[in-house]
Amino acid sequence: NRVVGQNPGERNYHVFYALMAAADAQMKEQFGLTKPTDFWYLNQSGCVNDPSLDDKGDFVKIRNAFKVMKFSDEQIADVFQLLAAILHIGNLEFITAGGAQVSNSDALVVVANLLGVDDYQLQDALTQKTRVLRGEVIATPLDVDQAADSRDSMAMNLYGQCFKWIIKKINNCIRGDETFCSIGVLDIFGFENFEINRFEQFNINFANEKLQEYFNKHIFSLEQHEYNTEGLSWVDIDWQDNGECLDLIEKKLGIISLVNEESRFPKGTDETMLTKLHTTHAKNSFYIKPKVQNIMFGIHHYAGEVFYTTTGFLEKNRDTFRDDILCVLKESRSDFIYDLFENIAESKQGRGGKTMRNKPTVSSQFKESLHALMTTLNSCNPYFVRCIKPNSEKAASRFKEEVVINQLRYSGMLETVKIRKAGFPVRRYFDDFLQRYKVLVFKDSQQPSPAERCQNLLMKLDADKKLWQIGKSKVFMKEIFEMEMEKERETKLSIAATLLKAHIRGYIARKAFKQTIKKIIKVSSYCKMFLCRRRYIKFRNAVIVFQKYERARVARKRLAELKEEKRKEEERLREEQRKREELLAKLKEEKRREEERLRQEEEKRKLEEEQRRAEEEMIKEEQKRKKRGKRENKRSSKISCLLPFILILTITLLSDAERNLLKQRDLERKKAEEKLRELEELTKKLEEEARVQKEAEENEKQKKEVQAKKELERARQIEYHRQLEKEEQERMAEEERLQREIEELKRQEEQNRKNKEDEDRRLYDEEHGDQLKRVEELVLKEFEDSLLQFEEEIGEGEDDVFSRKSEEGQNYEGFLLMKSAGVINTWKKRWFVLKDETLMYFRSKQEALKSGWLYKKGGGHGTLSRRNWKKRFFVLKDTSLKYYDHDGDNAKLLGVVDVKSIKDIVDSSYGRENSLEIVTHERAYQFVADSADDCSEWYSILTRVRSANPYEMREIRDEEANPKNAIGSLDVVLIDSVVPVNIDSKKNAFSIITAERVISLAAESPELMNNWLTALTIYHRGIRVYNKDEISRVAGDPRGIRAL
């Protein structure tokens, strides 16, 4: 309990001061750290600084120790954040306002942020105690003292769980294999006796009594028992036994048993507990009953008499760390806080909330842990270190004989010195003794009995038998005798070791000499090899030079030959080209001449043809003329008869000569044409070869041009892409600038809107302040009356209520601020729905088919077993299942699962209860719900959505405002009245008054408040108007408002 309270002149644990002294500016801002004097857990004793300690240096040592023990940076930061949260918890203050309420809400918000919990839930857990009465959760306000105890209990448990977690990490780091041996150090509080001794001092002194019993058992009881068992000559030494004192405390009907029994009675008090103690143990010699009736009782401890004040005994024994606080810490968004309390089970609460008889008390837990410690100690070989205080003032260089002698006397140190002086503290088994000290005799004795051999050895060293004795299985020796034997043994071993070292050194020297000879031979061989190789390399380099010049000569000769061959080949090709050109020119010339000759012959033939036709014309004319002369000249018949015959013969002879000439000319023409065709074919062949060669050259040139174009195009593409990237960067920069300007404009518009709303509220309050104040006084009076009546009737069970179902399915909904318990900072934003004669309120707007927290199995390399299970907030909207890191407004979307693409939904278990597996085409998702009902609801809704058609989906969406999802509901028929109230901290407030309670609500604007008042009042009078448009129309009617 040093975390929450210290004695005068004492400091809290050093780590808090080290954190405050060495934290940098960023850490102080992050954790809200200032000065030690600003924190109640550090300044209540009046001692903040200790000149003998260096807090900054201790902080560096702590961080280095964390690193050595393989703590990650994240884990170190989590530990420091938890320590800062504990300091801020101590600054929480409470006032009485309908029960305990937190007066400094700023400190509460800081604590909630550091612990990763909701500040409203944390305040409820600290200021209220919940229980289940007939199936309904009842919250009972705590008083200021009880709330302070809850605060201190949470701080102590946070520190204790963190301490256990660090010890577990250290043990896992230094643990060896399964057969490892270890040395443990046990250091607890010393015996405490202050002016006022409370429940904590009682437990500490009880632990000291148990350890004193353990000390007596090993120093006196077991020691003397072993002497008697081994048959040594021994006189028993008396010692103070504290067994009866322990029986008074822990046996049946002892002090702890009576305190636990009284703690389990709901009406048990510290006074009734003290009366039972006096009645039961008044005759016990170790129990002290004060002569004057007061609130104390005393015990004769081994260290003296101690009187204990019973104030707060039962409350501290009942353990104020309630399940409400445990549930809040288990819902923390911080994995570290969750890990600390994951394995702490909540109390199993039965009907009627009767958990006191089953819940273990603090004293019973302390007793069980102390017994477990004693079981561990009994399995070890203990060594005791007694710490003696020189004075009671904790001052340096001050020695008080009275204080020291009393500590020595009460702790049994005088008897310890006596038994150590008279006894034989050193003992060894015979075989062990012979094995260790046989070096002290040169020749081993031949006695078969180990006891005789040990006795002979001891007789040679001490014949008087004053410093040793022989038992049945062991040798018992004085400590001084053992020291003498060890010195003699060391001398003998030193002489033997010197001789062995001499032989070993000689062996090592000889071995080193042989190794040196081998190395010299090897080095010489390497030297010879190096010289030979150097000569070889020199000769090889010379040969290489000769080869180089010879190869150059041969290459030059071969180059000249190749050049000559190339020159001859080029000349041959040029000559062939020249001949082909000459032949082509000659063929062309012959062709030209032949064509010229043929042309001349053709012209000659045409000319002759024309002459022949002219002659034939002349002959015909002549024949015509002769025929005419034949008629004229009839006188000369003989000449007329012979002349035709002569002409015909002449024409016949002339025609045969011409025909032979034409045939000869045709034959010569055909031969010329044949030769001309041969020349044309040869010309075409030569032209084809020239064309092929020219095409090859053109193709090579085109390939080079295409390659150059490709290189140019590639360079253009690279430059083009660079230009595009530059333009893209400029465009993105411009878009970011525009986005920032748009966001800035939005923020300015939002700020202007808020300022306008605040101004509207202020004007509204000024206009209606007096009227709302009178209504508020009336509401508060009715609230007090209804609260008294509710407390009287809360145990009588729930009244039978009835509700009517509306024929219309319309509903009125919106956000409202709802005040829970108390009047300070207890407003919470809730989503209200008025539907089917029921007013329901939800944690958030019901835009989804279902939402809630689930544990999702994912990646991670954490060292803890739960690292792969992350708590995520899931929202099922339409056919999309989305999960976020938390349920706030700025929650980060971590993933989306399309329900329609799910292959299978399996209700299975993965080492944890209430688990689901969703199998898709890409992967499988594993989820774990907090309860079986929650798991069943998720399984049902996912299965329905997966197999639903469009019509069924519309029906599922109509079920969004389901009372099962609401955190509270109220039948409208139970409402007595709905009135506006005037509350300074909240504008637009109104109250719903029923026979059992008053619900205080606040709207965002006067219009919304009037709409809600109209809707609730109209329905209460029997008119079912749920539609928002209708309600707004009624609210806008002045007559409706005056009627309200």
TrEMBL record:
Transmembrane segments: none annotated. GO terms for molecular function: actin binding; ATP binding; cytoskeletal motor activity. Residues 662-800 form a coiled coil. It comes from the Eukaryota. The lineage of its organism: Eukaryota, Metazoa, Echinodermata, Eleutherozoa, Echinozoa. GO terms for cellular component: cytoplasm; myosin complex. Residues 370-392 are annotated as: Actin-binding. It is found in: Cytoplasm. Belongs to the TRAFAC class myosin-kinesin ATPase superfamily. Myosin family. Residues 609-624 have a biased composition (Basic and acidic residues). Residues 809-847, 847-1021 form the PH domain. Its main location: cytoplasm. Residues 609-633 are annotated as: Disordered. PROSITE patterns: IQ, MYOSIN_MOTOR, PH_DOMAIN. InterPro entries: Actin_motor_Myosin, IQ_motif_EF-hand-BS, Kinesin_motor_dom_sf, Myosin_head_motor_dom-like, P-loop_NTPase, PH-like_dom_sf, PH_domain. This is Putative unconventional myosin-X. Residues 1-490 form the Myosin motor domain. Pfam families: Myosin_head (PF00063), PH (PF00169). Keywords: Actin-binding, ATP-binding, Coiled coil, Cytoplasm, Motor protein, Myosin, Nucleotide-binding.
